[in-house]
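Input.
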Amino acid sequence: MDNKEDDEEVGVGSNVPTAIETDIHAEHKEIKAFPRHTRYMVIASCFVIQGLACGLIHSWGVQQEYLANNVYNGNPGKIKTLGYIGTLMFFGIYLWGMPAGWIAEVWSYRKLCLSGVFMMALGQLLASFCKEPWQLCITLGIVFGLGAGLVFGPTSTAPAGWFTKRRGLATGITVAGVGVGGLIIAPLTEFLVRETSVAWSQRITAIYIVVLGAISCFFVRVPVQDRSRSFRSFNWRAFNNRRFVIHALMVFFVTAAYIVPYTYLPQFWVRHGISSEDASVLIAVANVASSVGRIIIGFAADYIGVLNSLALSLGIAAISCLLIWPFATSIGVGVVMSLFYGFTAGGYWTLAPFAAAKLFGIEKLASNSGTFYTVSAFGAWLGNPVGGAILSGPGHSTNFLGMSVYVGVLWFVAFLMAAINRTTYSKKLFAAA
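Output.
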């Protein structure tokens, strides 16, 4: 019975070679060799680093709004350039996923995250001396984006290696740092900008990144580090694996869809008579629901199966965009949309690395997840521009129907990809896969 349970934890199927079973038991022994509190320190440290990296990206809009209205007001070209910075940061956090995951496995999770934290702080510090938007594109968009990309993948996957029965809950708590970081850092940034200046807010940000990030990096580690692997041993043949390709496609479609509602729902609500203040509250509701969903869906996945939870979450996200968004023209229905979308879409970020561990094994989770995050970068680059192009088309600027269908179809295709991998793992409909 124990062997079967262990097989299900790492997703290697029912016909598991004896060598793999031996490795799994060896992994359990490695975990037990550490004090019990080590695993919880790993979760806490990864939670903080995720909050710093993603929370600062989410709070860039505060600085962008101030610069656009007070520094570059009346200069449309520079204001347009400011708009690229958030996209560059968001793109960078995924673009560096593949090399970051591989470097973490070959070199060191701790040292890689420390390097990323240094780059994040350096980007903020250099930005404080910039006078032109194109300079901010380099310091924040590229330098900070590189640092965020170096820490995001490793901190998303490190906690999973410390758990076998509560892997979903551990991952969910970790990635909930994204939402919590946004909720804390955005108002903090607004306060610093208002009371000091954009430049000093960036310098202060660099200081707390170094302090909190360096302390957290000290605790980031995995129980087993395979020192026999090298940079030359990357397995490009993984793309010959049908499951791997299907999972990569799912990741691409999800990332293309994910950010569009967060970007355009406020505009949709204002167009339908809801005040901008209420629209911002509805987005805040979606962010809170996202943080809660990351934890609860991860917890549920430990019981009903990660692949089941993944398909269910993607399906509900598709339904919310196709059937709720078009009718969310009042605050009441807007709250329903925010709750359903935020909860299920946020849960995906818990389930994505957890599902990769289930399908392809825990021992290569960082490099595999890194590959998927790099695929996500192209989806992130595609999603908003296509949505904006649809919105600018005839007849779509008022009812947003074309955009909601576009996003809903992306989520539905991702659901189909997840369902296909679920059926290849187990043909039993109600199995906890």
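The first helix runs from residue 2 to 10.
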